[in-house]
Amino acid sequence: xxxxxxxxxxxxxxxxxxxxxxxxxxxxxxxxxxxxxxxxxxxxxxxxxxxxxxxxxxxxxxxxxxxxxxxxxxxxxxxxxxxxxxxxxxxxxxxxxxxxxxxxxxxxxxxxxxxxxxxxxxxxxxxxxxxxxxxxxxxxxxxxxxxxxxxxxxxxxxxxxxxxxxxxxxxxxxxxxxxxxxxxxxxxxxxxxxxxxxxxxxxxxxxxxxxxxxxxxxxxxxxxx
Length: 225
Ligand SMILES: [Zn+2]
Prior knowledge:
Layout: H1 2-21, H2 23-36, H3 44-59, E1 68-71, H4 78-81, H5 85-104, E2 116-118, H6 121-137, E3 152-154, H7 160-178, H8 182-187, E4 193-194, E5 197-198, E6 201-204, H9 212-224
Parallel strand pairs: 1-6, 2-3
Antiparallel strand pairs: 4-5
Helix pairs in contact: 1-2
The protein binds zinc ion (ZN).
């Protein structure tokens, strides 16, 4: 309880300071504080332990597959790609999911998949438009025949699977930006693989990157040649 009171005191003070100094920062900080409010009775270590436990459970889910596109914005040129970072990443993930569904289907048992999107106002409309286009014309890499047409939007606060996807994204980000491998090592074991090589997760960056994702991807390319 002591820590809860101290955090609240610090936060109130910080908000007063920002209110006078920087309005934009004030609004962002206020939002961050509101969203993290349910966790402030826990120490940083306790919070990390919870995420770690969730990652450990996910790492044991043999049926689960992770698909992700991690874009290093420094190396991404939207003009050359004719797409925004968000669009390209979405197209990649949809294509990989389609490939996965195709791979696990058999001639007499076609497996269908459903995409569940976080109901985020800024992307919901764009994703709906993009999905319609992918269904009609395919993505850059594949036709879309195994993903059910209607995108399903859910409120992430009420949907634990979307929160788990967020945790996976967090683990990937902390690994690529900060070199933290505690969570990454657990969830990367669930990345979709084909013949032992990772195909579900990619790091879009310079060619010389030696991170585990790029190395796993390189191995894959060599195997395909
Ligand atoms: Zn890399």
